[in-house]
Amino acid sequence: MGTKHNNDGGTVLERQEQKLKPPAMYQVVLLNDDYTPMEFVVAIIQEYFNKDRETAMHIMLKVHKDGRGVCGVYSKDIALTKVELVSMHARKAGHPLQCVMEEV
Ligand code: TYC
Predict the structure, then answer these.
(1) Which atom of ligand 1 is nearest to the CA of 35?
(2) Hey, how many other C-beta atoms are within 10 angstroms of the C-beta on 67?
(3) Tell me: the pLDDT tens digits for 38-81?
(4) Hey, whose CA ends up nearest to atom 7 of ligand 1?
(5) Taking the CB of residue 73, how many other CB atoms lie within 10 A of it?
(6) What single-letter DSSP state applies at residue 62?
(7) What's the CA-to-centroid distance between 35 and ligand 1, angstroms?
(8) How far apart are the first and last CA of the chain?
(9) Residue of the nearest CA to atom 5 in ligand 1?
(10) Cβ of 29 below 6 Å from ligand 1
(11) Is the pLDDT of residue 29 over 70?
(12) pLDDT value at position 2?
């Protein structure tokens, strides 16, 4: 709503056009590498992307075959947090697993 003065000195509320775009969404993507164990990747997908074991296995095998795979789509802050947590977990465990986000 915007405000506008009317002809007897009052103020009226005026409906404005809907100009707000829906917030940008980001896909969180895992990248393949030759060293991270498959079982570790499956556990990561289950833990951080709330997938069941079967879905996690499916995503992991897709990454292994195609080089990349989408684990989920989130708002910017949630996607960024997932990327940070997954990257930290992988580094701590000594694996080179790469996790990135891309606007969709
Ligand atoms: N390519 C890895 C291997 O053969 C498995 C792997 C899958 C690694 C997915 C990373 O995001 C990844 N052990």
Answers:
(1) 13
(2) 11
(3) 999 999 999 999 999 999 999 999 999 999 999 999 999 999 99
(4) 64
(5) 14
(6) H
(7) 7
(8) 30
(9) 38
(10) no
(11) yes
(12) 45
